[in-house]
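tl;dr need the bound structure. longer version: we got a ligand (flavin-adenine dinucleotide) that a collaborator sent over and nobodys looked at where it sits. i said id run it. heres the input, straight from their email, havent touched it
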Amino acid sequence: MSSYRESLKKLSRKVYIQGKESADPMEHPLVQPGTNAVAQTFELEQQAEYNELIFAKSHLSGRPVNRFTHIHRSTEDLMNKVKLQRLLGQRTGTCFQRCVGLDALNALEITTYEMEQALGKPYHQRFNRFLQQVQDENAVCDGAMTDPKGDRSKRPHEQADPDLYLRITGENSEGITVRGAKCHQTGALNSHYIIVMPTLAMKEKDRDYAVSFAVEADAPGIIYILGRQPSDTRKQEPHRADVGNLYYSGQECLIVFDDLFIPWERVFMFKEYQYSGRLVERFAGYHRQSYGGCKAGVGDILIGATAALAEYQGVDKASHIKDKLVEMVHLNETLFCCGIACSAQGGVAPSGAYLIDLLLANVCKLNVTRFPYEIARLAEDIAGGLMATMPSLADLDHPQIGPLMRKYFQGIAGVETTCRLKMLRLVENLTLGPAAAAYLTESMHGAGSPQAQRVVIARQAELENKKMLARALVGREGDDKLPE
Ligand SMILES: Cc1cc2nc3c(=O)[nH]c(=O)nc-3n(C[C@H](O)[C@H](O)[C@H](O)COP(=O)(O)OP(=O)(O)OC[C@H]3O[C@@H](n4cnc5c(N)ncnc54)[C@H](O)[C@@H]3O)c2cc1C
């Protein structure tokens, strides 16, 4: 695990944080909790009881690899992914960032195979060599799909500024150059490689935008600008307890690609616009499955914190509180059920990789756009107003006001006031603070906004078949006899 942190420190990258270029971003207090969260995916390798979840057998080498670098080869693999994500959500209480790269690898494995078969271009061979390297190095990959998109009503080639979608700007015998940006990049500074994919199903006029490649995170020509999170500067305060979650947070960046050169060996899609939609749909499908695991894990933390607060504040026996906690569990487990169901109903793709059931994965994500908000609403109901009006926990150390805080914020006798206040901070972190970006906004928009799921659900709904099923029960005109 220390070697993971060391490997990131060795990367020489152009990183901007709060308006300044950062010479040593991995030491920055806004960055470190995000790295801690990804580091948990390495930490699990050291714990024998999690071997089955964290390790999988590589189909390339036959050796055990970290599951975050694995191409799913069975239904069990798909389900273990969701279980692993729930576990990591429970351990970190936030976004642990590594699944987006895993989902990009799996979507590319299937799509490059398909392209190579149909077009006779060596996309899949290149991809497999890259995958082998990722597995050998146990590397972390950023999955970069979302373009800035400018005017959403216009296609990429129609934008006033052609760089608002990442595009190919040149090619020669060595490789290609690309220009553009990718927004909201989860775990960008914690990654060794950036995997770029198109964000839309492209049409012929947008063929320069139909590009996918992998690149070293410290390639010259990449700029990182760290995204902010609510209350993030609390991480910079000497008394860090007001952060709520002392150890972990998510991380997003804007990544700018400034005429970046990519050798052909790392190009996985070059102007193949007919295949861009399939790549997007598969990546989004895998990522919509992911949320059934990770968000349920973070939900476990929020439910646990809320239940503890109910106890500390003497309301845990009230019937409406018990009922609200049951409702939170019901919603949270529904998300997990969806993650498991779309895995269990998945099937094998022509490449041999396993793909989730797309309809169920989209149902999963559409629930994810709603249920965490309701769980958060119930948590705020039970927590009470102090969650949002509480003085700093640093005040507890003050000789004069510390005793006043302890006296007036005491809950039930026998539980330290500090326990109550820290738990309130954790609920604040998850519903209004840094982790709300991961638990709420990411639930809404990550892997696509709700309308994107509705579009897929509409496409997969098989309404004609459902109509036929209904018609079979009512019979034709004149058929009014009951069955014998
Ligand atoms: C915390 C977080 C982490 C993320 N991590 C990653 C990541 O690691 N990698 C990655 O690639 N992306 C990531 N994303 C990006 C995510 O996929 C996008 O936020 C999502 O696709 C929505 O895009 P947008 O934010 O540009 O919003 P928009 O696309 O602008 O959507 C805003 C609203 O406009 C509507 N809309 C958009 N276009 C149209 C249109 N043409 N017609 C009608 N309505 C439209 C949408 O339905 C939505 O209601 C992350 C996002 C978040 C919030």
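gonna send this back to them w/ a short note. The pocket of flavin-adenine dinucleotide is lined by residues 100, 143-146, 149, 152-153, 182, 184-186, 252, 437, 441-442, 445-449, 451 (CB under 6 Å).
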